[in-house]
């Protein structure tokens, strides 16, 4: 590790003296902050993106710096194309400022969850979910892939809900199904540049939302996974770190399912949704 905390990728050869640099969106979320920590621990300098929670982003930055990693921050609304452009421009500026950086990973992790039901969804809701969850990953990749050297990697965050019917969360589920299609299509589109694209499929993962403290909500979530329980963010982060590493150098256009078997559709009929149970919890307070 160098004196200022950044770790150097490779001791000899053409990469000697360079630092792997990763862009992680949604770094203030439960999963995003674990991804930043995992990538920092595997030697990356990180650009941690956040939406609205600047203070949380600063805490994450301090935590990573305390662990000896370099961490930069940017806040941007990814539902707005101007926010996507701002991230791309900031990455370009950081690469100029830090000539030792090699942009080796983009992790499209930010998302808006818990969308309205089929009956309640408005066109504005529909557009907002797709803008944040699908359009932003598309255009972030379009803007950042040209800045990546061969060997770079894009990791998109999908969801188990893309693999079964979720009418209570329909726009979210559809937006994640589109992310998997984006993953396959982009993998072929940029393969000739030597850059890989994959997606991770989490099931319910304890991101720190108060719902995970509710026994009823947790039991409902656990009923989806054939392995039972809910996931820890670190498990999802480990899958991202693997796909972003050279150990996955022959893996592109695919998904890595860390949902505990939630996509096997083995559960019984559901009577509730997370939102209904959260509302019931609120009423009881
Ligand atoms: N947790 C689960 O059970 C689960 C299950 C399956 C898939 N996933 C997927 O895993 C990923 C991370 O989820 P999580 O559980 O860590 O979520 P989370 O804790 O709710 O965090 C969401 C992150 O996305 C950012 N974000 C939301 N809207 C944004 C916007 N308009 N512009 C910019 N950033 C925005 C948030 O930023 P601010 O907070 O700073 O505003 C936050 O950093 C998501 O793609 C999610 O779909 C999660």
Automatic annotation (TrEMBL):
Pfam families hit by this protein: adh_short_C2 (PF13561)
Protein keywords: Oxidoreductase
Signal peptide: none
InterPro entries given in the database record: KR_dom, NAD(P)-bd_dom_sf, Sc_DH/Rdtase_CS, SDR_fam
PROSITE patterns linked: ADH_SHORT
Gene Ontology terms for molecular function: oxidoreductase activity
SUPFAM superfamilies recorded: NAD(P)-binding Rossmann-fold domains (SSF51735)
Family under the similarity heading: Belongs to the short-chain dehydrogenases/reductases (SDR) family.
Record's protein name: Ketoreductase domain-containing protein
Organism encoding this protein: Leucobacter massiliensis
Taxonomic lineage: Bacteria, Bacillati, Actinomycetota, Actinomycetes, Micrococcales
């Amino acid at each position: 590790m160098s004196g200022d905390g950044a770790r150097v990728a490779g001791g000899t050869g053409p990469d000697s003296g360079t630092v792997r640099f990763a862009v992680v969106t949604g770094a203030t979320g439960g999963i995003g902050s674990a991804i930043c920590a995992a990538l920092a621990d595997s030697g990356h300098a990180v650009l941690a993106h956040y939406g609205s929670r600047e203070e949380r982003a600063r805490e994450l930055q301090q935590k990573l710096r305390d662990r000896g990693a370099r961490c930069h921050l940017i806040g941007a609304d990814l539902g707005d194309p101007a926010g996507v452009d701002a991230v791309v421009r900031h990455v370009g500026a950081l690469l100029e400022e830090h000539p030792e950086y090699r942009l080796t990973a983009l992790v499209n992790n930010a998302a808006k969850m818990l969308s309205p039901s089929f009956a309640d969804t408005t066109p504005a809701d529909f557009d907002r979910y797709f803008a944040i969850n699908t359009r932003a990953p598309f255009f972030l990749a379009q803007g950042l892939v040209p800045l990546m050297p061969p060997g770079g990697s894009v990791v998109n965050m999908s969801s188990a809900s893309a693999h079964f019917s979720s009418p209570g969360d329909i726009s979210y589920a559809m937006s994640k199904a589109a992310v998997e299609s984006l993953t396959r299509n982009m993998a072929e589109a940029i393969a000739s540049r030597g850059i890989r694209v994959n997606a991770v499929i989490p099931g319910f993962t304890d991101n720190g939302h108060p719902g995970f403290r509710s026994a009823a909500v947790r039991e409902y979530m656990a009923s989806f996974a054939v392995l039972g329980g809910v996931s820890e963010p670190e498990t999802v982060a480990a899958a991202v770190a693997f796909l972003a590493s050279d150990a996955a150098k022959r893996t592109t256009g695919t998904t890595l399912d860390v949902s505990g078997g939630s996509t096997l559709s083995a559960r019984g009929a559901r009577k509730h949704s997370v939102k209904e149970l959260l509302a019931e919890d609120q009423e009881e307070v």
